[in-house]
Amino acid sequence: VASIIAFFAGTFINAVVMERMKKSDKNPDKSSKFFVRAITSSVLSELTDSLIFITLCCTFAPEFYSWSKLISFVLTITTIKLVVEIILFPLLNLLRKKLSKFGFNNNKNT
Q1: With 0-12 CB in 10 A as exposed, 13-18 as middle and 19+ as buried, what is 106?
Q2: Is the CA virtual torsion 54, 10, 85, 36 positive or negative?
Q3: How far apart are CA 98 and CA 85, in angstroms?
Q4: What is the CA radius of gyration of the chain?
Q5: Which pLDDT does position 16 carry in this prediction?
Q6: Phi-psi region at 29: left, alpha or beta (left = phi > 0; alpha = psi -120 to 50)
Q7: Using an 8 Å Cβ cutoff, are 86 and 78 in contact?
Q8: What distance in Å separates the CA atoms of residue 34 and residue 93, rounded to the nearest whole number?
Q9: Which residues of 47-65 are buried (b: 16+ CB within 10 A; e: fewer)?
Q10: H, E, C per residue of the chain
């Protein structure tokens, strides 16, 4: 249950941050800052996800999680997720561009 709640909260934060950053970008070629938007929204959403998950786990399963280690858990989990995302981002972006040549994701303002 903690994982589902954290996932939905993190996904919501990711969508809101991504959309607001996209709207505030005055550059007509919005794809030029896609990496910055993706990583910034991911940092905030992963922090939200991890903080909610670990907090709920500390509250309802204290035998497995410790309040004293809450911050280190959150930062460790968030860091691991972000490192994986930064490593995979160029590959996924390349795949996205290749698929768009075949008519997938015709949205040029990502």
Answers
A1: exposed
A2: negative
A3: 19
A4: 17
A5: 95
A6: beta
A7: no
A8: 10
A9: bbbbbbbbbbbbeeeeeeb
A10: CHHHHHHHHHHHHHHHHHHHHHHHCCCCCHHHHHHHHHHHHHHHHHHHHHHHHHHHHHHHCCCCCCHHHHHHHHHHHHHHHHHHHHHHHHHHHHHHHHHHHCCCCCCCCC
Q: What are the tokens at 77?
A: 């989990």
Residue type, 15: A
Which positions ≥6 away from 82 have C-beta within 8 Å?
A: 39, 42, 43, 46
pLDDT in tens, 42-91: 999 999 999 999 888 888 887 777 778 888 888 898 899 999 988 998 89
Tokens of 79: 């860091």
The residue type at 90:
P
Residue indicated by tokens 């896609």:
34
Q: What is the pLDDT of residue 100?
A: 82
